[in-house]
Amino acid sequence: MNRDDCADSGHRPRQRGFTMLELLVAITIVGLLMAVAVPASVTFYESMQYRQAVRDVITALASARYQAVNSGRAQDVAIDPVANTIELNGKRTRLPGGLSLAVHSTRELNRDRLGVIRFYPEGGSSGGDIDLERDNGTGVTISVDWLVGRVSQEVYVVN
Question: Counting CB atoms within 10 angstroms of each CB, which of 17, 65, 117, 146 has the fewest?
C-alpha cells in the first residue's frame, strides 16, 4: 500500500512522536521527583558533614592520646570555637559551617580563645568536653576522661 492508497481509503499515515499531553505528564513527574529529591539530598549532605565533623574531632583526640603514649611527650589538642577548628601538631581541621563548637577544658591550659585538652604519656589527660551542635538544636558532647584519657560521645537534643 502506498501513500496514495492511504489517502483514498480515508486513513492518515501513522506519525511518530509524543503528544503534548504525554510531554506535560512526563515533565510534571520529573518536577515532582526533583521537588522531593533536592531537599532530601541537601539534608543528607548536611548529615554527612556533621557525622564527618564528629569523626574528625574524635580521631584528633584519640590520635593525640596515642602519640602522647608512644612518644613519651604530652600532646595538646587546641580547639578554636570562633574559627570552628581543631588542631593537633600543627595540623588544623576546619569543621563545616552550620555547626557551633564549644569546649570545656582546664582553664590553666587554655590559650587566648583556644580551649586545650592535653594528653599525658601515661595515658591520662587534662579532661574536658567538646560540644558540637547543629543549627536544628541536635548535637553531640565528646568527652575526654581525665584519668585514662578515654574519648566518648553522647548525643543530645536541645528543647
Answer: 17
Give me the domains of the chain, ranges plus CATH numbers: 20-157 (3.55.40.10)
The answer to whether the beta carbons of residues 115 and 104 sit under 8 Å apart is yes
Determine contact, residues 49/127, Cβ cutoff 8 Å.
no
- Which residue type occupies 98? G
Q: Is the pTM here over 0.70, yes or no?
A: yes
pLDDT digit string, tens, across residues 40-74:
888 899 999 999 999 999 999 999 999 999 999 99
99-134 confidence digits (pLDDT tens): 999 999 999 999 888 999 999 999 999 999 999 999
User: How many of the other CB atoms lie within 10 Å of CB of 139?
Assistant: 21
Per-residue model confidence as pLDDT tens digits over 137-155: 899 999 999 999 999 999 9
